[in-house]
Write a structure and sequence with these properties.
The protein is an alpha+beta fold. The protein contains five helices and five strands; from the N terminus they run ααβαααββββ. The termini are far apart.
């Protein structure tokens, strides 16, 4: 007679075990769901998105401002102007004709390639950022010889209309030189 009781006892513990497993799985699902929600709505995630956007726009703008082909100088200068804002944009726009004449006379082609970049400051609320970009600029003269020059540039970015544009650009100090 003991045998039927044991089978019956095993049948009674099966729902309890299943209920316990369901509760553990539900608790785990709730915990991971909350963790995912918290991570998705964390201010650090939004800040990282803005940092990455500023860096990508800044690297592209620095590359644009160091690339120019005398055979299509107007397109290159349009790209310069669309990559900039503020005083830098005004300087480029006001000196456009003279610069185009110089490049066409020299018959040079310069191409830039970003080697690395970093955001050194980001004020997301004010819409300002500073970047450091290392790049290699290749200049090909009309005679066919080309030279490479590696340089580091410091740039300031301003967010305008939801996108980042260069508002200042200069050479980064090298070695023991001061920034002045």
């Amino acid at each position: 007679m003991e045998r039927p009781v044991r089978i019956l006892a095993g049948v009674r513990t099966l729902p309890a075990l299943a209920l316990a497993l369901v509760l553990v799985a539900g608790g785990f699902a709730a915990w991971t769901g909350w963790d995912w929600y918290a991570a998705a709505h964390d201010d650090a995630a939004a800040y990282a998105v803005q940092r990455d956007a500023a860096l990508a726009a800044g690297e592209q703008a620095v590359q644009n401002l160091n690339t120019l082909d005398h055979r299509d100088v107007e397109h290159g200068l349009d790209l310069w102007e669309s990559s900039t804002t503020g005083d830098l944009h005004d300087q480029l726009a006001s000196g456009r004709k003279e610069f185009a004449d110089q490049v066409e006379k020299a018959k040079t082609v310069s191409t830039a390639r970003v080697l690395s970049g970093a955001v050194s400051e980001l004020d997301d609320r004010a819409g300002r950022a500073r970047i450091l970009v290392a790049l290699r600029v290749t200049v090909k003269a009309s005679g066919g010889e080309s030279t490479d020059k590696d340089s580091r540039m410091l740039g300031e970015l301003t967010r305008t209309g939801g996108s980042w544009k260069l508002s200042a650009l200069g050479q980064a100090p090298v070695g023991g030189t001061s920034a002045g």
